[in-house]
Structure formats: structure tokens, C-alpha cells
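Below is how a single chain appears once it has passed through the pipeline. First comes the sequence as given, then the structure the pipeline wrote out for it. We keep one example in the README because the format questions we get most often are answered faster by looking than by reading.
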Amino acid sequence: MSFKITIYGTSAARPENLATTLLEGKLTPDGNAKLAATGIVVSRKYVRGVLAHKGEEYNYDVKAL
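Resulting structure:
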């Protein structure tokens, strides 16, 4: 048996810098989780990679053991 989990977070020092991240995936009874993170780049200052530009979407996988 596993449980579906959704976590939505926002942060901003100023309204024009609003950043959001959505984590969705499954949590197993033993505490392991496999999640997918998605969001929109607000500033290159906080993103890794030379191809990340403001306003573009990002995504990555999260595996918690």
C-alpha cells in the first residue's frame, strides 16, 4: 500500500519574485518516497545550470529513503 502525496510551496521576498514548487508522488508505509518536483524559474541566482532562464519551467525527481 502506498499513499499519494502533494506538497505545494511558495516563497517571495517581494511579490514580483514569487517562486512556487510542487512536489507530487507516492509515500510507502516504510517512509520511502518517490516525488516529482516542478516549478517556474524566478531568478537564475537560485537555479543551477546555464540554460535556466527566468520564467521557464523546471522539473526534477526526488527519491527519499
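The mean pLDDT is 83.

See the next section for the split statistics.
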